[in-house]
Design brief:
The structure is a single chain. This protein has 467 residues and is mainly beta. The protein has helices at residues 130-135, 178-182, 356-361, 451-455; strands spanning 26-36, 46-51, 60-63, 67-74, 83-85, 109-115, 120-125, 140-145, 154-163, 190-193, 201-205, 208-215, 222-227, 229-236, 239-246, 250-252, 257-264, 271-278, 281-293, 319-327, 335-338, 354-355, 366-368, 371-372, 380-382, 386-394, 400-404, 409-413, 416-421, 423-426, 431-438, 442-448, 459-464. It has 3 domains: 26-148, Cupredoxins -  blue copper proteins (Immunoglobulin-like, Sandwich), CATH 2.60.40.420; 178-293, Cupredoxins -  blue copper proteins (Immunoglobulin-like); 319-464, Immunoglobulin-like. Helix content is 5%, strand content 44%. It has a 6-stranded mixed sheet with strand order 10-9-12-17-14-15, with no helix packed on it. Strands 23-20-26-31-28-29 form a 6-stranded mixed sheet, with no helix packed on it. It starts with 25 loop residues before the first strand and ends with a strand.
Length: 467
């Protein structure tokens, strides 16, 4: 049975009530400082940055095909944007400061106006000084309902975050410290889901749950299992699996999502748990106290969700490019060129290679294809509709969660192509080949979503022609 950890060394979670499904015409989202009770009440509230006063923000739940018009109001002490993570969006709405739009200054506004083409589980967060702003609480779910959703008793979005708190339950500073940047990233010491801790819910045996898991942590890799719950993974990164996979042990890197359909198998009088597996044992992320029976018999396995429409890959003759990850602690990076830096850092133009000491003095610890920071030239310039294959080589001692904006890709292996994703978690020393159809025109960021790694140089971009 999972146990609770003490304050600042434990994990905890809470599930928010399901928002009502409604068409969205135009709403406002405000980013501003706020106070939130994310730890036990005896420690007092934590100063956070929040969307509309809550961590995570209440978010949106809309029908597939909805047009969203959302006016972003910045009441933060620094410039910000909103990136709609995983949505195949118009490039001008992607929210990347310095690449797709200017950052919105304090007191400023920006109107995001786009259509959500794909059903699934998505989320939004800043893409200007992302490491600090996300670590201070700026996250929210974006749920896009299928036209024919599966039959479940409850549909719950669970936004999981990892906070680094000091002894006063306040967010620790040091966002640019090079130890985080060159190692595993900014790992926290207090895990929450939907901004709450130590949750308890009533449930019934054979009740069917849809849990939409969002790893909104800046660096933590989640390893998840269950007790008293049994079922299937039906979607990854918003995209349905052609055949649902039995849920056993699930690994979610930063920014990744998974949709689970789980049945409560615990007997009445017993708890059921979604569990975070860590070095010293398993800890409850969600607890369901079983008090009755929803059905006398177990339900059949869920069917596949309706697929989203993706252009088919044409691997034969596809353009092939390489992307090598270098640097970090124990990485042996001797030199690299310094590129331009987007996302809240300084700019510049690439000159000749510089040594590691000068890289570190400029806030860099990583390089992609020999460039630390955003290169002036894209990784690839693709014609619209062209299939692109990228061989990712992790020549470092650390894992990386590589996220491509504006598209979903497939991992290509000997057994064929895997399910569509927008983020791939790569272990140290691993080589992975991905392929995608470049069907969304514009300039799209491609970076590590261990956000301290991104800030310390691990970013590039792709350009897709208008026609």
């Amino acid at each position: 049975m999972p146990t609770r950890r003490a304050f600042l060394t434990g994990t905890a979670a809470a599930l928010a009530a399901r928002p009502s499904l409604a068409a969205v015409s135009e709403t406002t989202v405000t980013a501003a400082p706020a106070m939130a009770q994310i730890v036990p009440a005896e420690y007092g509230p934590t100063e956070v940055w929040a969307y509309d006063g809550a961590v995570p923000g209440a978010g949106l739940r809309v029908a597939q095909g909805t047009r969203i018009r959302r006016r972003f109001v910045n009441r933060l002490p620094q410039a910000s944007t909103i990136h709609w993570h995983g949505i195949r969006i118009d490039n001008a709405m992607d929210g990347v400061a310095g690449l797709t739009q200017d950052a919105v200054p304090p007191g400023g506004e920006f109107l995001y106006d786009f259509v959500v083409p794909d059903a699934g589980t998505y989320w939004y967060h800043p893409h200007s000084n992302t490491l600090e702003q996300l670590s201070r609480g700026l996250t929210a779910p974006l749920i896009v309902e299928e036209a024919e959703p599966p039959e479940v008793d409850r549909d719950i979005a669970l936004t999981i975050n990892d906070w680094r708190l000091d002894e006063n339950a306040q967010i620790a500073g040091g966002f640019g410290n090079m130890r985080d940047g060159s190692h595993a990233g900014r790992l926290g010491n207090y895990l929450t889901a939907n901004g709450e801790g130590d949750p308890q819910w009533d449930a019934a045996r054979n009740e069917r749950l849809r849990l939409r898991l969002i790893n909104a942590a800046s660096a933590r890799v989640l390893r998840l299992s269950a007790l008293g719950l049994s079922g299937h993974v039906v979607a990854l990164d918003g995209m349905p699996l052609a055949v649902p996979e039995p849920f056993a042990d699930l690994v979610l890197g930063p920014a990744q999502r998974a949709d689970l359909i789980l049945d409560v198998t615990a007997e009445a009088g017993e708890p059921a748990y979604l569990v975070s597996e860590e070095r010293d044992g398993g800890y409850a992320l969600a607890t369901f106290n079983v008090t009755g029976t929803a059905s006398a018999v177990a339900r059949p396995a869920p069917a596949a969700l309706p697929p989203n429409r993706l252009e088919p890959l044409e691997l034969s003759g596809a353009r092939a490019v390489d992307l090598r990850m270098e640097g970090g602690a124990m990485g042996g990076l001797a030199e690299a060129r310094i590129g331009m830096r987007h996302d809240g850092g300084h700019g510049g133009h690439m000159g000749g290679p510089v040594g590691m000491r000068e890289l570190v003095e400029n806030g860099f610890a990583w390089a992609l294809n020999g460039v630390a920071g955003m290169p002036e030239a894209p990784l690839v310039e693709a014609a619209r509709g062209e299939t692109v294959r990228v061989k990712l080589v992790n020549d470092t001692a650390w894992p990386h969660a590589m996220h491509l904006h504006g598209h979903h890709f497939h991992v290509v292996g000997e057994a064929g192509t895997g399910p569509a994703r927008d983020t791939v978690l790569m272990d140290r020393g691993q080589t992975v080949e991905i392929a995608f159809v470049a069907d969304n025109p514009g300039s799209w960021m491609f970076h590590c979503h261990m956000l301290a790694h991104q800030a310390a140089g691990m970013m590039t971009w792709v350009r897709v022609a208008e026609s």
